[in-house]
Design goal:
The chain has helices at about 1-20, 25-45, 60-70, 80-85, 85-90, 95-100, 100-105, 115-140, 140-170, 195-215, 225-235, 235-255, 260-280, 285-305, 305-315, 325-340, 350-355, 375-405, 410-430, 440-460, 480-510, 520-535, 540-550, 555-570, 575-585, 590-600, 605-620, 620-635, 640-650, 665-680, 685-695, 705-715, 720-735, 740-750, 755-765, 770-780, and strands at about 55, 175, 180, 470-475. By secondary structure, it is mainly alpha-helical. Strands 1-4 form a two-stranded antiparallel sheet. Strand 2 and strand 3 form a beta hairpin. Helix 1 (about 1-20) packs parallel to helix 9 (about 140-170) and helix 26 (about 590-600) runs antiparallel to helix 27. The longest helix has about 30 residues, at about 375-405.
Length: about 775
């Protein structure tokens, strides 16, 4: 059994990095199934030999951390939830409103604002925990520990070599067959270069430790020729050379990936490795080889070229030469989340759902799925409780391992301890600017090197009655039931999600409309119910069932399932808006609460704000309705169809002057509205809005086209003074635009100021030599 367990252990170490970093449902399912299975097999095999189970350092804080994640899924009374997570309790207000006033006080809700995401994260961390325990147990024997290290280093070297040649031969495809999105930069099997660098940072120190361990012992009283000859003939000399090449290749791959965080973390890790070697008394045998490896990495990078690396680091500063990155904006928006969910967090995996409520600067349609800082995201997801437990886990393994290592003289143990500690330090440094712990393979390898840290300091290399200094104990029979339960629970969650997705996929392709026969609606409803039974915590099946119920005319069923969907996902703007529009037809308060929450949760989707504006105007709340219309127009940044906004205002008996309260204070919106007024024959009002637009134009954000429409409008009315006012501002903001120069020349020619017209025509020819319009303008002046 233990042999099979070890084979599964090695399989996961190889599979997870190669399976595109284990970020997809299928690869995560394999990892989450195999890790508890391997631990179960080991525990069953351990029953045959007394004392074959080693006590695991840090197990108590690790179990408490996993238990806390499970508690985030536990429904709590409203009063207790408001005490532990006031912001989370407030976020569930729409779900309470849908449930009804009479039952809202008895509605029990979890701490997590997205239970499904938290359940999936719990499955992932359960697999990590099993793998950590398994690493400590399996690597408690020296031969198995050494074999595992060699396999991991060989794998890392192969991936590094793949990444380097793929960088130049196939940068747009992983393994030469799988394309990557246009906004991604693949490195090795990873679609994201920073995650690739995170993996290499953890394996590079392991290669260096083995490189130093297998260093041949060369006599110093012989000639240089004999020394060089001995270097290739002594025992382990070839292995020493190969391990050095693997370390150099790993370092080169990090630099070539152009990951700034990875390169900085690697340099800090190398410095930390030297410090640890000095602390463990191994610095003499390590300084010269490490210096040689670093020099060879720099030499290899020079051969590939330093220009891309330098250019990548130059992007860390803005035009004012100040350190700046888009991550800073995300971090600033993340701070209020931490403040509001300080103690217990919003639920693991919930960042992508909670962040839109706090986003200020990012705007647009960009999806922010992680905080790009594992420490900040740990606080947003788990609060101070989770952060304290993680800190206790790391302190526990370092304290117990360091204390044991201080009593040992084994050079291999000291080298491997230094390497494992460096690997942990490297990924912890990189986590300041990225989210490596949310990558399946990198998370697994983090817990693997934590296990190596323990094994390195406790595993005995030479003889003795026991293979490890870890206290051996007889494992209770019932303990084997724990990984079995985990295996069943993880399998149930993953298979349920797969089945529910398969059931919902055909339903998502159906456009619900009143012409669908009742029999077909009943079949679809049954399919949605089955999907809901398969995947607990998944909000998609009840939401789909609620939508079907609206066409079946079953108001109560629709209300019940809308409420269930909002209990599972209270931040989804689409769910909130759809439920608000439907329930608001009968329950005014429910519609107001739901639509307001939808607009707050999605500040980049103008359609939701328009729906809320329409509902508010129907309720007679004109002031708030117009404010929502204005917000919708601001989201569209002048790209919207003004006819649609005006039509919405006219439907509710509002005149065109009401649009003044709707228009955002930006030039483009006023220009487009003025163009709409021209089509409606309201030229005097259009002239007013064109002039207001000119007052709102800012030099930094202006575009040449902002001035052409007002110019032609005033020129068409023979109002040359206002046309000149418009075009002079345009020329002032865009002096290198030949078209604006020509338009200025034409208005001066119309006004009879020939010398000024000639100046602008000549300036246009300087900008665009041979411009026919400017040439014709000058010719007309000469005539």
């Amino acid at each position: 059994m233990q042999r099979v367990s070890y084979y599964l252990f090695i399989f996961l170490l190889i599979f997870c990095p190669l399976a595109f970093g284990t970020v997809e449902p299928w690869s995560l399912t394999v990892m989450e199934f195999m890790a508890p299975l391997a631990l179960l097999l080991y525990m069953v095999g351990s029953r045959k030999g007394p004392g074959s189970w080693q006590r695991v350092p840090g197990l108590v804080p690790l179990l408490l951390f996993l238990l806390f994640m499970a508690l985030q899924l536990l429904p709590l009374p409203q009063a207790l939830l408001a005490l532990l997570s006031p912001a989370g309790s407030e976020l569930y207000q729409p779900a309470r409103v849908v449930a009804g006033t009479s039952s809202s006080s008895s509605l029990w809700l979890p701490i997590s604002v997205n239970p499904l995401a938290t359940a999936q994260e719990l499955c992932r961390y359960l697999a990590y925990g099993c793998f950590y325990v398994l690493t400590v147990q399996l690597c408690s024997r020296y031969k198995r520990l050494r074999r595992t290290m060699l396999i991991v280093v060989a794998l890392a070297a192969g991936i590094a070599f793949l990444a380097v040649i793929q960088k130049f031969l196939s940068p747009d495809k992983i393994y030469w067959f799988r394309p990557v999105p246009g906004n991604a930069t693949a490195s090795g099997p990873w679609i994201y270069r920073n995650h690739f660098s995170g993996f290499m940072e953890m394996t590079l120190p392991l290669a260096l430790a083995l490189f130093l361990h297998y260093r041949p012992r060369i006599r110093y009283d012989i000639s240089w020729r004999e020394k060089i000859y001995s270097l290739f003939t002594l025992p382990h000399a070839n292995l020493h050379t190969l391990l050095g090449f693997a370390a150099i290749l790993s370092g080169l791959a990090i630099v070539v990936s152009l990951s700034r965080g990875g390169t900085i973390s690697m340099l800090i890790a190398l410095l930390l490795f030297v410090v640890l070697l000095r602390w463990t008394g191994q610095v003499r045998r390590g300084v010269v080889p490490l210096t040689g490896c670093i020099l060879l990495v720099l030499l290899a990078t020079t051969w590939f070229g330093w220009e891309p690396v330098v250019e990548r680091f130059n992007r860390m500063t803005n035009s004012e030469n100040v350190l700046f990155d888009g991550r800073f904006l995300i971090w600033a928006d993340t701070m209020p989340i931490i403040r509001d969910y300080l103690m217990t967090g919003a639920g693991f995996g919930s960042f992508i759902h909670i962040y839109p409520l706090y986003r200020q600067e990012m705007g647009g349609e960009r999806l922010v799925d992680h905080a790009h800082n594992d420490y900040l995201e740990l606080l947003t997801d788990g609060g101070l409780v989770a952060a304290l437990l993680v800190f206790c886990f790391l302190v526990s393994i370092f304290w117990q391992s360091g204390r044991r290592l201080a009593k040992r003289r084994d050079s291999f143990a000291k080298l491997l301890f230094s390497a494992a500690a460096t690997s942990i330090g490297a990924i912890l440094v990189h986590s300041v600017t990225d989210f490596n712990m949310h990558n399946g393979a990198n998370g697994l390898y983090f817990f693997f090197v934590c296990g190596l840290l323990v094994a390195a300091s406790h595993t005995r290399r030479r003889g003795g009655a026991r293979p490890s200094y870890l206290p051996a104990q007889q494992m209770p029979l019932f303990a084997a039931g724990l990984p079995l339960l985990l295996l069943l629970a993880i399998t149930s969650v993953n298979l349920g999600m797969i089945q529910a997705t398969g059931l919902l996929r055909p339903l998502a392709r159906v456009y619900l409309n009143p012409n669908i026969p009742a029999e077909r609606l009943a079949e679809m409803a049954a399919q949605a119910r089955l999907a809901s039974a398969k995947a607990r915590f998944d909000a998609r099946p009840p939401f789909q069932l609620a939508n079907i119920a609206t066409f079946q005319g079953d108001y109560e069923l629709a209300k019940q399932n809308y409420g269930l969907a909002l209990r599972y996902n209270p931040t989804n703007p689409a769910y909130l808006a759809q439920a608000g529009l439907y329930l608001g037809q009968r329950e005014e308060e429910a519609g107001r609460v739901l639509l307001t929450a939808a607009a707050k949760g999605e500040r980049t989707n103008p359609e939701i704000s328009k729906d809320l504006a329409d509902w508010l105007l129907r309720q007679g709340d004109t002031e708030k309705g117009l404010a929502q219309l204005r917000q919708a127009m601001t989201m569209e940044e002048g790209r919207g169809n003004f006819s649609e906004y005006v039509a919405l205002a006219l439907i509710h008996d509002l005149d065109l002057s009401a649009m003044e309260k709707v228009l955002p204070q930006e030039a483009q919106a006023h220009i487009r509205f003025a163009a709409f007024l021209v089509k409606q024959g309201e030229e005097e009002m259009a002239a007013t809005y064109y002039l207001r637009a000119m007052d709102l134009v800012a030099e930094q954000s202006s575009k040449a086209r902002f001035f052409t429409a007002p110019y032609y409008f005033f020129m068409g009315r023979d109002d040359y003074d206002k046309a000149l006012l418009v075009i002079r501002k345009g020329v002032a903001f865009h002096p290198d635009d030949a078209n604006l120069q020509i338009l200025a020349g034409e208005v001066y020619r119309k006004m009879g100021i020939s010398y000024r017209a000639a100046e602008h025509f000549r300036q246009a020819l300087l900008i665009s030599p041979g411009n026919s319009r400017a040439t014709r303008g000058l010719a007309a002046l000469e005539e």
